[in-house]
Amino acid sequence: MVQTLSVERLLLSILCMSCLAVSMVTKNPLRTEPVAWTSIPGRPLQGHIGKAIDFQRLIPRRQRITRGENSHSLAKNPDMLQSYIVKVKQDMRGQFVAAVKELAHDAVIQYLPHDSYILVLPDNIADEVAELVGVQTVLLLPSEMKVAPDMLSAIHGENSQVVTANRRAVKQNDAANLGPQQKGFKGRKERNFGAGKGRRTEAKTEDPRASMEGDLSVVVGRTGKAGNVLVTSRWTEGLHAAGLGEAVTEIVDRGKGPVTVRVSGGEGSVPAVARWLAQQGEVVWVEKKGTIRLYKVEQRVEEETDGRGLAVRNVNSVPAMLGASDQNGDPLVWSMGLQGEGQVIAVADSGLDYDNCAFGEPGGNDAGLISFCGGLSTCSNPGRHRKIFSYRTFDTADVGDEASGHGTHVVGSAVANTLSALQGFSLEGAAPQAKVAFEDGGKESAATPSEREALRFPDSLLDMFTPSQQAGIKVHSDSWGISDQRYELTAQQVDEFMYDNPEYLLVFAGGNDGESGYQSVGAPATSKNAICVGASENVNSAYPESARAPYMKLDVASEYQEELASIAFGEFGAAEAEGLIVNEKLVLIQSSGSDPSLGCETAQNVAELSGNVALVRRGTCFFQTKCANAQEAGAIACVVMNNVVSELVVMAESDPQDEPRTVTIPSVFTSKNNGDVLEELLGEGEVRISLPVYDSYDPSNVAVFSSRGPTPDMRIKPDIVVTGDQVLSAKGDANLNSRQCTAATAEMYLSGTSMATPQVSGAAALVRQYFEEGFQAAGSRDLTAGFSPTAALVKAVILHSGEQLAYPKKAPPFYDMGIFPDYDQGYGSLRLSSVLWFGDQTSGFSLSTFDQESVSDGELWAVCLSSVDDSESLRVTLHWTDPQASLSAAYALVNNLDLSVQEVATGQRLYGNALPGVSSTTNLFVPELDPVNNNEQVTWVSPTAGSYRVLVSGRDVPMGPQKFAVVVTGSFASASICTVPADEACPGDGTCSGHGTCMPGGVCECEPTHSGADCSSENAVLLDNVQVTTPEVGVSGWTYYVLPVYRDQSWTINVNSLGTRLVSDPDLYLAYNRLPTLQDFDGLEFSPAAVTSLSVSMLDPQKVLIPDGLAMKGNGVWVLGIYAYCCAPARLEVTVSFGAVPDPLPTSMSDATTTTTPTPTTSSTTAAQTSSSTTAPKTTSSTTTEGPTTTTTTITTTTTTQDPT
Q: Given a cut of 90, is residue 922 above it in pLDDT?
């Protein structure tokens, strides 16, 4: 019987006992026994919730016999499927995967860090798997690890937060929304200046169960005979037996891919059904199916035309994306012969108005030449139309696009090529000679706009991508996504399809939720292998005057200096005009009443307000009343800050019957995020503002709507950006016989990452053409040298071409993190000509590429570069198509490769993605290896002349061998694969600087006293009751401190965050006798015995006990790691207080894991530099210091041989 005791305990308060799952009836139930997470051998599991639950271990057959069980329990049942976690010895992983594939060739194997695999197997094969060499234990996959985190919260009835996207300005006249009217706001996009950071970013919230209605996507294992049986009838019977039959309207199982379970029946139905499903043995994962949405920003202005109907502005963004131009001003890549000839791009979108002259046939017989097909069927006779390779409709979608259609605009940016320049109309996409295989998911004939833009794609993206792949198409462009920032089912399917089809490249829009702050990229763009596209602004001439949005400019001596906050002028007060307030002091109103900042009563701080700008909090009374009180106190302007997270509103005038007082001073509204920051800055010193100021636009800025990374597991997103604001492309008119051939009828401007994505897809087609036609051999077309590149190489070229943006007007919450690539722009703005080599057009420039190279676990691959000089920067980009991750895993990366570039003469190395560690002893930069991304890049500016090595190490490759691609540009004579001498494989003179172990693959494992990629950075020692101010740790960076501890000695750490509370998010990690990593555990959730590491977030302070199991390790050192999570640098004050030294001191070190007896107050390691602050008192409780910027976290540790009390 499937073990479900843990789930029953957790959900008892939510679901009645009649809703308990009915386990699958079998003749011979599995024999299991409970096992604690800390008792699982080997490196710890990294499930998204695995550390907080109980596990059940499968008792192997040999142990059953030993325990005297009868032969009935040994019977094999091939009809019973069960999901397992199989823990394997680290050095036996490759052999294990091969052995499982031999036992069950159709078994789906998903890696679960560390050293574990999720398998769905029949009972008979599970017994054989348990007996394989290297297997340490076999566990049942717990139900809790099968359910998406947001679903789990809803099931448990916790108050989870759900991000929604609704940013239209709404006219309101007070905090209670008394004004029902709505007023447009020129389509302005709120910047959300000063939004919360990272995973704790401020977002609109909903009751979790309110969003828990609809379809469930269920991943099932399909192994062997049992896997060929559809689950429909059995699940229907089981759900009825559990009292849930009425809640499920349909179960759709197509025999492959996920099963769709459609649920209705009111609140609580979806959680109950999800719980039942998670308890079925063959089920691996359950999540709520997301709603696909198009990534188009609402058009801000109507098209402005001159007297002839021609567009006033005609700014095409494609040339900038392609890079350098020739002498005629055309993109260089086009003039060198790359325009997409022979390439086909698949585009899935809302529809295509194919009679637009950007696509249409000269004779107008478009429908007669297009190959139409439906569903997943094969399109017959494709490719006859000059631009439309094929036209596929999914589900109930119909042919054509709605007026001003999304899909038509998207296709235009990729492949448009007008028949002739009629009446000033000439439009070319990124690959103007390429064709499009269009996949229509829209329904132009639907009744409402939302229904017309709802995309009707197959339930499984694996089904959706298959027809184009079978037709030989290699690039698929997708300007849509869902509002889920996790690595979820659609992201996993993208990775799976690309891993199984290594030449197939998917390109996804990152989303338009940038105003929500960091970690706003939506799935499937959160996948690892696809290209995630962000948007930058266009040139200023692409924007009409009416598109200008007003802002409030700050002038304050802090990180916010001269930053912009979005505002909306009210219907009362001075009319909007530039320069109303210039550099005037901001003052928070203090009125009588329970909340002085509301300004609903007479102001008390008249002297401060007089001649200055009043800051007022929304709530209780009318907006106009607040600003009238400020005006009567002498304020020269009124800024009302929201008290809830919502859209930017236009403050309406009070109803005349309320006899409102006249307000003549400028009165504006700003967001809650902005208000929180303003209040914080006022607490730190003087703030001066100017309003309104108007933004200018520049391609060197990321568009404010463009969704930002990182993903929750800190992977870089977006991957690349191109112009996505005010993009000129083809226009649909909902009429397939209108023949739009003038600028007024055939083109329009739209904004969004949707508009950026097809440009990148077009560029990817040009990259494919470059290699297929052999340009890389001699700089010109050489078909004999051509080859079909993998998607990994194409993506590596795209990322390699990125140019770092300047950010001249970057606004919070988007901060300069001091790293590149970063979470705003990824690897920068696409400039294709900067990487493609066309012979001698750039003196000294060299390009070398390597495709389908591979490494296994612990292997090192190298390329030797000769005669490098400083005439060009040396840039190297590595990308690999990683296997799909388990949805139960805490981190998406499966195979971890590391890139470094070494100057041979000096041994100096630069490391991929340049993560910004910092030494706790010297405050200097310390390079760290990237443990989460499958893209890595090194840029060596002005390299010293000589020889260099490009090194790729298989640091941790559980699903190997892993193939990869490498792109190298610079000025060098040759680049060839070579062998690295064994004594030079590792950094630090081949010895890890004498402070670590050189591991296979050329990776250093540092001693706990040192850190950095080469173990050269000495970690400071924390001394008893000495307060230390840490160096500033950059985003994604680490700093480390050593705590030498005696056996049985207690100790306490007090930590104060010195960073801006609304921005900085440091996390603390502790590990015993080694450096902690991101893969260590969260100590807030539990305190089991024998744990050797924990972490604690500074924004959630709690007291944490280190359990007694550590005492058995004897004397040693703990290492405190401070990690700067998303998305600003972190700086802390740290104090450690040691308890009394045990009396008597240990006399035997036989059980110690170190050879040196540590002393709490002295060490050969450098002591941490102290601050001028007084020593903090000893304490064992969590405290929060009053004030906006300081949080105190106390970590109390007791290493004792008795149970902690």
A: yes
